[in-house]
Amino acid sequence: MRNIGRMLLLAATGVAGLSVASSLMAHGNVTPQAVDTSALPDIGEEWLQHNPYRGNAEAVKIGESAYGQNCARCHGLDAESGGIAPDLRYLEVGDSGDEWFVQRYQHGSSHDGKVYMPPFGDILGQKTGWAIRAWLETKHQE
Ligand code: HEC
């Protein structure tokens, strides 16, 4: 499934993202924006539980832009939530915060048959996710 998602994404980015966009419409009207992570070290296919890019300046830069394109509409510009979704500046820093982050990023959040947050794992991939997390940690507040 993960590979199929990635192949679809690759195919779809070539033709204006149509199939990805329409498959996502079903999960809350989010059109994912492709993110160029080629400048970041490869981290393989298996999902990691802890951020391999923590403190990586290139990842922070990519993550800021990826956040703005994919997360800000719900979580707020510059990670300051306007109240629609949790304020991500308060996510715990370090490894245990990483585990919670990657769980939500991969699978999103649904309950009582409603999608509160769409899953991003298969669509944007883990390099993008960890880049976003690296940027978020620079915005952390207690
Ligand atoms: C459609 C709106 C929406 C989008 C887009 C969205 N989220 Fe969320 N997110 C939510 C909501 C709502 C919750 C709370 C879910 C719940 O409590 O069940 C949430 C929860 C989270 C959490 C857990 C926060 C906590 O304090 O428990 C993380 C981490 C997170 N989102 C990261 C992201 C990232 C990263 C992106 C972009 C790749 C993103 N979200 C995009 C709506 C969204």
List the helices and strands and how they pair.
Layout (H helix, E strand, L loop, with lengths): L1 H13 L3 H8 L31 H14 L1 H4 L18 H14 L1 E3 L2 E4 L3 H18 L4
Helix pairs in contact: 1-6, 3-6, 5-6
The structure holds heme C (HEC).
Keywords: Heme, Iron, Metal-binding, Signal
Protein name: Cytochrome c-550 PedF
GO molecular function: electron transfer activity; heme binding; metal ion binding
Helix-strand topology string: HHHHHEEH
Oligomeric state of this protein: single chain
Count of β-strands: 2
- CATH C-level class of the domain at 46-138: Mainly Alpha
Can you give the mean pLDDT? 85
Distance, first to last CA = 37 Å
Shape: globular
Describe this structure in words.
It is a single chain. A hairpin with a 2-residue loop joins strand 1 and strand 2 (114-117). The termini are far apart. Strands 1-2 form a two-stranded antiparallel ribbon. It has helices spanning 2-14, 18-25, 57-70, 72-75, 94-107, 121-138, and strands spanning 109-111, 114-117. The chain has a domain at 46-138: Cytochrome Bc1 Complex, Chain D, domain 2 (Orthogonal Bundle). The chain is mainly alpha-helical and 142 residues long. The chain contains six helices and two strands. Heme C binds at residues 28, 30, 70-71, 73-75, 85-86, 88, 91, 101, 104-105, 109, 116-118, 120, 132. Heme C binds next to helix 4, helix 5 and strand 2.
